[in-house]
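Lab notebook, bench 4. The sequencing result for the construct came back, and we need a structural model before the next group meeting so we can plan mutations. Quick request posted to the team channel:

Model the 3D structure of this chain.
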Amino acid sequence: MSWFEVAVQQASPVDLLYSLLYAYGNRRGEELPGPWLVAALTEYGHREATVRQTLFRMLRERDLEARREGRVKWYRLSRYGRTEADIGRDKIFEPSDGEWDAEWTMVSYRFQTDERVDRDHAREILELDGFAALAPGVYLHPRDKAGRVLDAARSAGLEGRLVAFRGARVGGESDEALAARLWDLERIASGYRTFLERFGSLRRRRRFAPREAFAMRLALVLAYLDVAWDDPDLPPSLLPKSWPRETARETASHLYETLLPPTLAFGDALMERTGFPVRETG
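Done. Here's the predicted structure in C-alpha cell form:
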C-alpha cells in the first residue's frame, strides 16, 4: 500500500466525506449516493459501519443534508458544510492579500446555552477563516474580513448572530507581539515545510493512474488543509522571514488540478460499479 493510501486509511472519515462531496460531488450533481460514499472509503480500508455512523452523525450535526430515493439515501453538503468547504478551497487557490492598513477585525457572538450546534458552527467559521480567540466569544484578525465572515455566517443560516467591528488597536504590546501570541507561527511554518517535503517532488510527474490519483488527491487536500486551517493569512509585516505558505499553496493548487481528470475517472468507475449513473455537471 502506498504512503498516500495509508494517509487516506488513517484520515478522519468526516474530513474524507467533506472532500468527496465537495471535490467530486460538485461535478456530479452536487449529491452522491450513500453506497458510493461507503465504497469510496472502504476502498482504502475504512469500515462500512464506521462510514455509515459518520454519515448519520454529520446529518445530526447539520453538516450534511439527505434525501431518500427508493432504498437509497443521497447526500449533499448543507449550507454550513458548503461554507466550510468553500473556505478550504480558497485556502488552496487564493493567494495571500497584500500589505496591511494596520487595522484589525473583531467579531463577537453570543448564543443561548441550548444553541450549542449554532455556536459551534459560528466558532468554526471564524477559526477556519483564521480568526484567533481574544476572549470567550470574541475573535480577532488583522485582515479586513468583516464582510466575508458575515457572508459566511449568513450562508450558514447564522445571520444576525455575529457582530463585526473594524479599527486600529490602541496601546499595549506591538502588533507583531500580539500576532505571535495569538498564533503559533513557527508550528505553521514547520507544517508547510513538511508538506513540501512530501508533495513537492510530485509536481514533476505528468501522469497518474486513476486509483492512485483518487487517493493522492484526498491525501493532498487533507495534508495541506491540516496546516492551512491554522494559518491566519497574516500580513507580511506580521510574519517571520521566509514564510513558506505561497510555495506550499502553489504546489497544492497545481497538483489539485493535475490530479482532477484521473480522480474523476476513478470516481466514475466506482459509480458504475455501485450501480449508479454518472451525472456530469461541469
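The chain has three domains: 3-81, 97-180, 183-263.
Will bring this to the meeting.
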